[in-house]
Design goal:
By secondary structure, this protein is of the alpha+beta class. It has a 6-stranded antiparallel β-sheet with strand order 13-12-11-16-15-14, sandwiched between helices.
């Protein structure tokens, strides 16, 4: 009944003790009672306690306490009493009703100051709550680290009754490696006496080693009143749910940051796999329905096959047990992945449901997966905007706990975010392919052989991040074995720039067919760009101003293999590089006109003579632009690669790209390198004829003799007719000297030049007309014919095939 604890206010040496008989009279009074209440023994013996110890106002309360004590044969609480000096004193009272052998009842009361009793009772209630009601685990260890006592919270976690824990060590409750950690920690607290706190430590019970518990623990050493170590107490809180929730939230935040950094389907799939391993799963594969990586819509029947886009495992050796990325996999009907696709819902296969169907997708490596200890599987569909794109499969082998519903929800969240990004990438790929197809359809697929030059070219699209550009190049055959070389770059990127490029390229071809001088071609092209800009501004007035800009740069060069002269005009473009046959390289020093689209400004033409075997390199700014804006270094590399003009042209072209480009270009790159050829003098014959009636006869005679010399007798009749008709027209309508020129190289070309700028017209003569049939006959006997204008007049030309 009485405690001797130095902290116990009811210790015998500290309490006031009073004995009452069955009538309530005092029959026993201690010295401590006299100290607390002021009455001496002689003043209280034989008197009723209620008469002198209780104020009249408190007597109803005290009477109720007496009745409760009589009924329960005991009572504890605080009672208001009156001191001898008249003031009120509250004492904590313990009362017991005792029946003596002679059947006489007596009351034993012990009391102490109410404050001390309240504090002691509070401590006792806290200790009782810790053992009986607290959700935080309490384990008391002896100095040899054996369990002395545990509370109910520990029993609920361990699954053992509280009394079964007594005498057990950590190794008998936890798996060995976790027990060693706990014992090491407790031993350190015992040895140093310093309390320690450990947050979120992983522990596993021996009875359920596959279930991971995450606990926060604090430990302190216990000592008795003499300072002797009597053990160590550990407070343990199960924070597994909180830890998992925080970990899932962190994983979702990480997924938001790491998934979808690019608009690339494959990269997004790899990012999805990387996020899931190892925090959620030990092995992950991402498989997409076969059309999806190509940017196409997924099929309506989602039964496969699928393409393995990403594989991730906790180790390389374990990753080798799975199908590698890039392979095509045909799903077996019993595979969880096939069910997931067909039913469009996730599949959770815990350890209890393990079957061979798990491995049917990885059938060639199934035995290896079994040996690895794979025990749990989740398959989640990748679905976005109502379409299933593929599946994500997650396995566990090293982590002992199987997948749970919370893990499935997290995997679904991963898959949902990844699917939206993959679908965005798929749609972008689809649009990018369409735009690239458009752009490439507008560029020349191949450059035909030409007697004037040998050509090598490269076109390198910009990266996906930069989008499409408007770069283009062209090699356009002209009359008289001449050839036009063109490079250009439309301002901006995207499909609008590519479409504008196509329109400009068509316009250049049309202008080239008119055989205009390079500066005149650029002037006409400048007018067209201004018209396009006005048209776009009218149609797309709601677009931002930056998207309405239409402009371009262009370089147009015409090379004549007979005269070896090259005429060049430039509209805001980079000057070409010229390499002599001896290997001297320079950038052509020429006037650079304004970019196309400014309007009203003139363009100048520069002429130079190129020796046979010279190199002419035309390129767009994507070749030499750098992130730092310094183009001197790439230009120096370009010149260095052109110093060996005799080496194969394809090799030179590739060497330029490899040397100048240090990475994937930020803008489209168009590169055109031409090696000049010269038509031998013996392949060209030219005569100046006087403007007189005999000019046509003279032309026929000269033509006949030259064709005989060239061994082209089978073309004599038609060529004499053509030359005669063209010279006759020049004599009749132009006046002045007439120049007849024959060119034999692959085809037979006949040219007649005069000083008139009047264009001949083909017409159909009536049956009664005496003339007007000359050009009609010329058109019938030749493959092509046309007119080109020079500063001194015009040239009418025809072309016949030697076949």
């Amino acid at each position: 009944m009485f405690s001797e604890s130095p902290e116990d206010p009811f210790a015998l040496r500290r309490v006031a003790s009073v004995v009452l008989d069955n009538r309530g009279e005092v029959v026993g009074w201690s010295e401590r009672a006299e100290q607390l209440l002021g009455y001496s023994v002689g003043e209280v013996i034989g008197r009723r306690a209620l008469d002198f110890l209780v104020d009249p106002g408190d007597r109803p309360v005290v009477s109720g306490i007496v009745a409760e004590c009589t009924r329960a044969r005991g009572w504890f609480g605080v009672v208001p009493l009156r001191h001898r000096g008249g003031h009120r004193v509250e004492l904590g009272i313990r009362a017991r009703v005792v029946t003596r052998a002679d059947s006489v009842q007596e009351w034993f009361l012990v009391g102490a100051p109410a404050g001390e009793v309240t504090r002691w009772e509070l401590d006792r209630a806290v200790l009782d709550g810790m053992y009986r009601r607290s959700p935080i685990g309490l384990v008391v260890h002896s100095p040899d680290l054996r369990v002395v006592r545990v509370n109910r919270a520990i029993a609920q976690v361990s699954g053992l009754p509280t009394e079964r824990h007594v005498g057990l060590g950590s190794a008998e409750l936890l798996v060995s490696e976790d027990a060693q950690v706990v014992e090491s920690r407790l031993r350190r607290v015992l040895d140093t006496g310093r309390p320690e706190i450990f947050t979120e430590q992983s522990s596993r019970l021996r009875r359920d080693p596959h279930r991971e518990l995450v606990v926060s623990a604090s430990s302190f050493r216990m000592e008795d009143s003499t300072g002797r170590v009597i053990g160590v107490t550990e407070l343990v809180e199960d924070v597994t749910d909180r830890h998992r929730a925080r970990r899932r939230l962190a994983l979702l935040n990480e997924a938001s940051a790491r998934i979808g950094t690019t608009l690339d389907v494959g990269q997004t799939a790899r990012e999805l796999a990387d996020v899931a391993v190892p925090d959620l799963a030990d092995h992950v594969s991402v498989d997409l329905l076969e059309p999806v990586p190509r940017g196409e819509d997924p099929p309506q029947e989602t039964t496969g096959p699928v393409i393995r886009m990403a594989v991730r495992s906790v180790s390389v050796r374990e990753a080798q047990l799975m199908h590698p990325a890039g392979g095509l996999i045909h799903l077996r009907p019993e595979a969880p992945q096939a069910r997931c696709l067909a039913e469009r819902r996730p599949v959770l296969e815990p350890a209890a449901g393990i079957s061979s169907a798990w491995y049917s997708m990885e059938l060639p490596r199934a035995q290896g997966a079994v040996d690895l200890g794979v025990h749990s599987l989740i398959v989640v569909p990748l679905a976005a905007r109502g379409q299933v794109l593929g599946v994500v499969s997650l396995w566990r082998s090293r982590r002992p706990e199987p997948f749970e519903e919370d893990d499935l929800m997290l995997a679904q969240e991963f898959a949902s975010r990844g699917a939206v990004t993959i679908d965005n990438a798929r749609r972008y790929t689809q649009q990018q392919k369409a735009a690239l197809t458009l752009q490439r359809s507008l560029l020349p697929h191949d450059v035909p052989e030409h007697p004037a030059i040998e050509v090598a070219h490269r076109y390198l699209p910009a990266s996906a991040a930069s989008g499409l550009g408007g770069d283009w190049f062209d090699v356009i055959p002209l009359s008289g074995t001449r050839v036009a070389l063109v490079v250009g770059d439309v301002v901006g990127h995207g499909i609008h720039a590519a479409a504008t490029m196509g329109r400009l390229r068509t316009a250049v071809h049309t202008l080239a067919s008119l055989d205009l001088e390079p500066d005149e071609v650029l002037s006409r092209l400048d007018d067209l760009v201004n018209l396009l800009a006005a048209e776009q501004e009218a149609v797309n007035s709601d677009l931002p101003q930056t998207e309405q800009v239409v402009g371009a740069t262009c370089l147009y060069a015409v090379y004549d293999p007979i005269s070896r002269r090259c005429a060049v005009a430039c509209a805001g473009h980079l000057p070409p590089a010229v390499a002599t046959p001896e290997g001297r390289v320079s950038l052509l020093d020429m006037p650079v006109g304004p970019p196309l689209g400014l309007g009203g400004l003139p363009f100048e033409m520069n002429e130079l003579e190129l020796a046979e075997g010279s190199l002419l390199a035309l390129y767009t700014n994507g070749l030499i632009e750098t992130r730092h804006g310094d183009i001197d270094v790439p230009l120096a590399r370009l010149r260095a690669m052109l110093t060996r003009p005799a080496q194969p042209l394809e090799q030179t072209c590739q060497a330029v790209l490899d040397s100048v480009l240090t990475g994937h270009p930020r803008d489209d790159v168009a590169l055109l390198i031409a090696r000049t050829r010269v038509l031998p003098p013996e392949k060209v014959a030219s005569w100046e004829l006087p403007a007189e009636p005999t000019a046509a006869a003279r032309a026929r005679a000269l033509t006949r003799a030259k064709l005989t010399e060239w061994g082209l007798g089978q073309l004599t009749f038609t060529t004499e007719l053509v030359a005669s008709e063209l010279v006759t027209n020049a004599y009749r309508y132009a006046g002045g000297p007439v120049v007849l020129r024959l060119i034999h190289d692959g085809n037979l070309i006949c040219e007649v030049s005069d000083t008139s700028s009047t264009s001949p017209h083909l017409r159909r003569a009536r049956s009664t007309d005496e003339g007007g049939r000359g050009l009609f006959l010329v058109a019938q006997f030749t493959e092509r014919w046309g007119t080109r204008y020079t500063r001194d007049g015009k040239t009418v030309w025809t072309e016949q095939t030697l076949g």
